[in-house]
Structures are given as structure tokens and as C-alpha cells.
Amino acid sequence: MSNANVHIAAGAIAGIGVIGALFGEVPDLIEPATNPHHRQFFHSAFVFGGLLYGAKSLYEWKPSNESQRILRALGLAALAGYASHLLLDSRTPMSLPILGKL
């Protein structure tokens, strides 16, 4: 592997990490934790299921070029970041609502 490829791979890994971390914050940007009962629709089990379905569909997609492969990796990172936030919230005493309010 050439030095150029190593730098691209390192940059891609860093980008994927940044996207995952940023999207892990999205639920609290949409529904800020301004009170103990902030978890509604975007913090719900329904949204978590949708994220899992989207991740499965994106994972099964067969990109035909490098741009699509990058887009797929970034999309998976974004979905994983958001889903990990909900998974961690589900482990608290308040857990997640099934559907929540819009």
C-alpha cells in the first residue's frame, strides 16, 4: 500500500469517527435535555427500529463506485452514532418511549 493510500485510509477512518460522534449528539439537539422528560419521538424505540432498518438496507447496498462507497460508510457511521445514543439512553431508568410525541 502506498503512502497516499495510507493517508486516504486514515482520513476516511477519522471522518467516519467524526460523523459517528456528531450524529450521536443529534437526538439531544432535536429534543434537548432541558427537563427530565425530554425523550419523545426522536428518542423512541420506533425511531431506533427505523435506524436499524436503514442501517441494514444501507449495509446491503452494493455501491458501484468510490464516491458511493464513501457515502455508504458515512451513512452507516451516522446511523450507528444516532442508534448508539438511543441504545445508551435505553439503559437508563427512564429508558425510551415506544413512540413518544411529535
Summary tags:
102 residues; mainly alpha
Concise description?
By secondary structure, the protein is mostly helical. The chain is 66% helix and 0% strand.
Q: Mind explaining what this structure looks like?
A:
With 102 residues, the protein is mostly helical. 66% of the residues lie in helices and 0% in strands. It contains 4 helices and no strands. Helix 1 packs parallel to helix 4 and helix 3 runs antiparallel to helix 4. The chain is elongated.
Helical amount: 55-70%
Number of helices: 4
Cα-atom Rg, whole angstroms? 16 Å
Largest sheet: none
Q: What's the number of extended β-strand segments?
A: 0
Oligomeric category: single chain
Shape: elongated
Beta-sheet strand percentage? under 5%
Sheet/helix structural class: mainly alpha
First-to-last CA distance: 50 Å
Order of helices and strands: HHHH
Could you give the topology of this structure?
Elements: H1 3-23, H2 26-30, H3 45-60, H4 66-90
Helix pairs in contact: 1-4, 3-4
